[in-house]
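Cont'd.
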Amino acid sequence: MSTAPAPDLLDLRLLFVTGKGGVGKTTVAAGLAQLAAEHGKRVLVCEVDAKGDVTSLFEAPPTDFTPREIAPGVWSMSMDTEASLREYLKLQLRIPVVGRIGPLAKAFDFVATAAPGVREILTVGKFCWEVKERHYDLVVVDAPASGHIVGQLAAPQAINDLVKVGLIRNQTDWMLEILSDPRQTGLVAVCTPEEMPVSETLELEKRVREETTVRMSAVVVNRVLPELFGQREEEIFEELRAPETEDVLSERAGGSVAPVLEAARLAVTMRRTRSAHLQRLQAGLPEGMPVLLLPYLFVRSFGVRTTRQVAHALGEELGL
Amino acid sequence: MTSPTPAPAAKTVRQLLAAKDIVIACGPGGVGKTTTAAALAATSVVEQGGRVLVLTVDPARRLADALGLKGIGNDEVRIPDEVFAAAEARPRGELWAAMLDTKQSWDDLIRRHAPDAETREQILANPLYQNISGRFVQSHDYIAMERLYEIHSEGKYDLIVVDTPPTRNALDFLDAPQRMADFFSSRLLRWLIVPYRSRLVNMASRPFYQVADRILGTQFLADISEFFILFQSMYAGFVERADAVTRLLSDRRTTFMVVSTLEATPVREAEFFSAQLTARKLHLGAVVLNKVLPEYLRDVKTDKLAESIAARAVELGDGLTDDPVVASRVLGEVADSFLNFSIVARREAEQQAELKGAPDVLVTVPFFDADIYDMAGLLRLGALVWE
């Protein structure tokens, strides 16, 4: 691993955002894109799983392989292996594919299944190509869940080991160059302060370091609960929960306050369990790895408003 | 084709598990799928007895710890009774656990299907094979189902609870056996092998080879075809096997349990998954919703009360304790916190209402105060899901 100081997150050219399912990976990818755009950058967000989640966070209709501007400064596209193959053949290998690509794509699909890594190369290759062509200042990839990202990022190297000659071999060289350059490429791992996501993030950090040439740039901890009380407040809270006090309070308030107090107790317990995991995360990461905290958003739904909230919270954490 | 008379629908997870051989826990990642699968298996052993296996794909050490094991490997191991005893429970049967080791399972599969020792060794040494078996995800999906089939056909267990791999697309593993069968019976495959077996490449396929050759290089193509030529001896076995795995998944003794939370993204995935199961005529036995916030957070009256507490915190906090200033501040915080969480709880309630195609059994499991780290925790969770 390079020991050079890490560049600012937004100064990178290619940023993979990954994390265990359900931790808010897409929300963070959208937030980072929004933040970069607010800082005057042209950003491309790429969705690999093509569920239309990124665009819905900008309240825009889903996009396909052709990028479309979905917010000022933010373009979006979703990965499509066949379209990528067509583009790849045409632009990279200078093999014009006339007419339908169907049979070739089918054959390719077949080879890709047989020769793993070929499919991944097209996905990663497309991102690298966008970086190389400098169509955008920053490419943010809403990458596959942590279990898959290592395979994808390691694909160019795997192909390099497997394929000794041929055009695809020449292709992997420049891809590896981009992926291995910590000034250009980074990876952001998203997790929540819960047991499994933290364990997986620590494991991912290790695997990324050992099995890929990509550098992990930061960990984003999503859904961090607010600290409700200090120590003195907690003592008073316990006094308020004493049965006689609670009764008096209920009488004054005009209804049973038990559920309100119980909810606060639950919030305190959740927060406490979570901060233990947060500490475990910080202790387990290599020294100097930035850990950005995002507050839990108590909102009814996620859309452009929450995307901006996330962007601003990230901006604050990055000191922007 | 007429479908067999449906059995009376199960009302609880207990009834469901009593009537099935295989329960496949599936759904989005990060919702407690592995833990739920293990909890159900453990509870089933305590409540119903029999030999129960939990087959997990999750290498989390915590599960091994909770089950009182040093680690779980590809081979099934029995959970010692002492582990139950420590949780003050008495197993009526045996709980077994195994973790899927993709590479090991692939190697076993090759050993089983290879026609002779030479082919076997050649395949195991082939660089493409090593890549497929070790590194790549699609093979994970297939091998999980293959291993399930293998274990089931040995007939050693009364119940097998499977925790499915976290797939990019939650359905990949369902299609994996069919894809594998298609793959090995494909005409394209034979087409690909032809030029390396005879010098005769017909005019129609020549452009393909030229393109393939330019992209991949001759050596690589040769590697690919060597791999397939070796595999050819096993095609029939593979295809037959993949078909059998597919049949097992749609067997009436097999049921699916979708596990999710009520967060927006997991719910959407769970809903999609449920719809797909139904469309494929697979049996969706239960939906388990984990980490659901308590119901009192959705109560409108309490919500109003919290609003009023927030507004009157100073007045209400006076004279209750010896520190009215802090008491008022605490009341304000408490009320705000309630209002915050009630927004989330109501969002969850809406998500739950939107879960269409409700299965026979829908279970909600409340938020646990602490993480589950031992058998007692698993059984506590299991008990909540059980009835």
